[in-house]
Amino acid sequence: MTRLNENIDNTVIPFNSIGLFWLGGGSFVLKTKGGKIIYVDPYLSDAGHAILGMMKEPPGDYKRMVEVPIDQKSVRTDFVICTHDHVDHLDPWSIPDIAKANPKAKFIGPYSCCYHYLELGVKPDNVIELNGRDSIEIDGINLTAFLTFHFRDSISFYLRENDINICFLSDASYSADLIKEVMRDNLNYQPLDILLIAANGKAGNLDAENCLFFADKLKPRIIIPMHYSMFKETHSEPTNIVKALERSCLSVKSVIMEFKGSYVYSNTKQR
What we know:
Helix content: 10-25%
Shape: globular
Number of domains: 1
Structural class: alpha/beta
Number of helices: 7
Largest sheet: 7 strands, mixed
Radius of gyration: 17 Å
Distance between the termini: 36 Å
CATH architecture: 4-Layer Sandwich
CATH superfamily: Ribonuclease Z/Hydroxyacylglutathione hydrolase-like
CATH class: Alpha Beta
């Protein structure tokens, strides 16, 4: 746990670059050139196993497949973005400790997530609502959300910082409505550098073929698969996406991140 925190702190982000650290499942840390730290869907406990296991008819085995990567109390962050109010995306066991350890951090998400933040003790002044089709800019970081129709008011988002454009496509089912939402603001975030995509093909999520579709439409330079290796119920091999890309004629590079691993992306190279 300490080593990953040190890695995040000590990683220097060059100009026109961004650092990514994978915490397992759909959880990431982004670090900007200016040193801003963004936690996206931080799942840092085993709350899913405990809470879902108490249901009269548990939906499956949601015990963690990997260790907790960072102690919630030691998280250092400027922003927390939760895409929807599922336990492995808005972790009710982690958010209170993160808020206490980071009294100035902003907690961002759709209405349902903001309501839950407040219930968990986040100060109202630190909560920023970001619903589908909303755009905000904070400390030079531009965010535009779009609806994903996965759960209540679930969102995904585009992010721009330091001329880096990212699409974070969280839990979503393939549909015409989703395509419209994803494409609505696509041109405002071109050229797209990174597409992080939850494409495990489980629990209603996108699969490898859907990933190819969005790769063709969005034309990212890099695709990073996510939302695997956390629960048996939602795990699939990310190599399925790599193989699908290799079979296609798309000139998109795939990056498979290691658990607790880091990747510094730079767009200074020619496309």
